[in-house]
Amino acid sequence: MHLIVCLKPVPKPGTVRVDPETHTLKRESAELTLNPPDLYALEMAVELKERYGGKVTALMMGPPNAAELLREAYALGADEMVLLSDRAFAGSDTLATSYVLSRGIKRLEPYDLVLMGKASIDGETAQVGPETAAWLGLPSVIQVKKIQQEGDHGWVLVRVREGYEEELSLSGPAVVTVEPGVNDPRPPSLKRLLAVRELAPRVFSAQDLGCEAEKLGLSGSPTQVLDVFAPSYQREQILLTGEPEEVAQELVSHLRTRGLI
Amino acid sequence: MAGFWIYGEWAEEDFHPVVYELLGVARTLAPRLGQKVVVVTLGPEDRRPGVEKVLAYGAEEVLFLVHPELDYFRDDLFGRLLGDMVRERRPEVFLFGATSEGQALAPRIAGELELGLTAHCTAFEVDEEGRLVQIRPSFGENILAKIVSRTRPQMATVRPGVFPKAEAGEPRGRVEEIKLAALPPSALVRRALRPLPRVENPLTRARVVVAGGRGLQSKENFAQLFELAELLSGAVGATRPVCHLGWISEEHMIGVSGVSVAPKLYLGFGISGALQHTVGIQGAETVVAINIDPEAPLMKQADIAVVGDARRILPALIRRIREIKEGKNGSGP
Ligand SMILES: Cc1cc2nc3c(=O)[nH]c(=O)nc-3n(C[C@H](O)[C@H](O)[C@H](O)COP(=O)(O)OP(=O)(O)OC[C@H]3O[C@@H](n4cnc5c(N)ncnc54)[C@H](O)[C@@H]3O)c2cc1C
Ligand SMILES: Nc1ncnc2c1ncn2[C@@H]1O[C@H](COP(=O)(O)O)[C@@H](O)[C@H]1O
């Protein structure tokens, strides 16, 4: 069985800069880390491999220095590492990102299942999973909590929805996103940490993937950030200062006057 | 054909509450874009009474795709059918609630038709060029981003509870029923549906929300919020860091990663007021901030800004309110 897990390099909180011209993230200058929700997808894939046999490929679109994160994924149980990296990918929105991922996934055929995190902590759109599935012409299921194989090319999945969980059967390969918190991602294995020192991810460029240039990067992204601004508030404000007992009392009387308590 | 489309997600017999919230958005924006408000929905014939209900909430047209096997949501099937409708009718705008279903569906359609899609918008504008400007908090920064889409329809998702519901009026408009003879294939089949033990989140309906942030400094200080909430018949809310610190469980998180609240009174203790938090209190009528730093963003936004140590003001406030409730000293010294 071949399982592909998409892992996103995200800036470590606090190290992000925004490009003042394009208003997109300047990823080059940020320190990177594996998107935490993706660790649940990786763990689920590794558990599936342990149950059914096969291999797990960790797939990432990112800058060259993201290769280090793929090594981390190897230590966490992935067997192969693939980095999609090209200057032309910079500034991609979710549509352009999912296009590149879908080209990468095609290169890794045949496969049985693609697993992703529910959402990234920087973009937090939760869009890349279903969009990638659409590019590949595959079904997608989001917020999956459990996966079992059924027959040769089938799956039984449980996904969470508001107020209930739903059991679905699914035929053929698909893209699923994994609900955070559904398993306990294992710690890195020492043996694998040592082994990976000798290994490097395979790297594919836009040309290697046969990407159409107009679908890439900032110019291939249909959403455009026009402007960023600080919110402004025009409220009549009451400012209270003083000793805790005093301000508490004043606050209570203001709230009582307004009929709020 | 065009139109300002809203996805009509079902919650049993009626539409999901977020559909009524999107109708409120559509009613203000659609006229400015010169578009008709259209709800697009799929289901078996017997959903018709539910379908007609939205005509009283500002829907000028309902596109109702009918087939007996459309009785539950299937990502690939619904994505395909709606994608085909979009190709055929070319709407200007297509909005979805950011529910599990909306978040499964909107990006499928965007991917299939190669369209831009903006997640979790908290406000919209129409610019001089007649574009829908989609506003959302920008990555971890205390700023909002204005986003436009180069493709049509302009697609966006909106979290439930962010916008007020449309009000009911005289029904107008009509339902266009499209009976489908056959459905495209789907890889998905529902096996079972198990209700989860439903913990109704009191936060989203609370009249009073008392929320705390990192400024409260400890779990023990934070716990006093429960006492205040009880005195005020309110609910306790929190910022993301304090949920992650384990001071309170994540259902209490307010903001982009949590819930949106719309109380008459919101009190924020030791909360800086990052946009990721404050987008969740957009609907609050009166905002009170308690912070040692008068320059904190939440202080700027508050109706009543109290400068001081939240760790000391919170117990003082509890004492004062308790005195009043117990009938002592009611009019103050
Ligand atoms: C993708 C993403 C999603 C996010 N989603 C959410 C979300 O849904 N909800 C959310 O809340 N956050 C969210 N965040 C985090 C958000 O950006 C802020 O970091 C967070 O809201 C800050 O929490 P805070 O106000 O408790 O802490 P801080 O920002 O650390 O603020 C603490 C405040 O307490 C004040 N203070 C300190 N001591 C005292 C004292 N003794 N008395 C009174 N005041 C004191 C300080 O002056 C400061 O203003 C998200 C971030 C990202 C990147
Ligand atoms: N650059 C990327 N490389 C690999 N996987 C990604 C990338 N961007 C997004 N993903 C995957 O898509 C999921 C959802 O991301 P998002 O739509 O940004 O919230 C993530 O959890 C990842 O699994």
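qc> Residues 142 and 177 of chain A are 5 Å apart (CA to CA).
qc> done
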